Amino acid sequence: MRLTVRYFAGAAAAAGIAQEVVELREDDRVTDLLTTLAHTRGPALARVLDVASVLVDGTTAGPDAPLTPNGTVDVLPPFAGG
Questions:
Q1: Is the model's pLDDT at 82 over the cut of 80?
Q2: Which helix (H) or strand (E) holds 47?
Q3: What count of other Cβ atoms lies within 10 Å of the Cβ of residue 2?
């Protein structure tokens, strides 16, 4: 399954990119995606992923949430201020 992953703010800085396309297995879940991203992008992103919110196709998703083929996943680090 192919997904577009978009990184925002500190997640983009840690990943070194703002967006990428990732290939996963059809039955993978959010936790599998996060593990893959941490492994491929390194420890700086892994630290951000530990505290980030994840949206799958615009909806907040927990670690066990399913992924959608050709979907979009947003990685949002905690934001300060308001």
A1: no
A2: helix 43-51
A3: 10
Helix (H) or strand (E) holding 33: helix 30-41
3-class DSSP state of 21: strand
Report the SS3 class of residue 45: helix
The answer to whether residue 82 sits within a structural domain is no
Structural domain count of the chain: 1
- Convert the pLDDT of each residue in 64-77 to its tens digit: 999 999 999 999 99
CA–CA separation, 56 and 30 (whole Å): 8
The sign of the dihedral angle between the CA atoms of 52, 44, 79, 69 is negative
Is beta strand 72-76 parallel, antiparallel or unpaired with respect to 2-7?
parallel
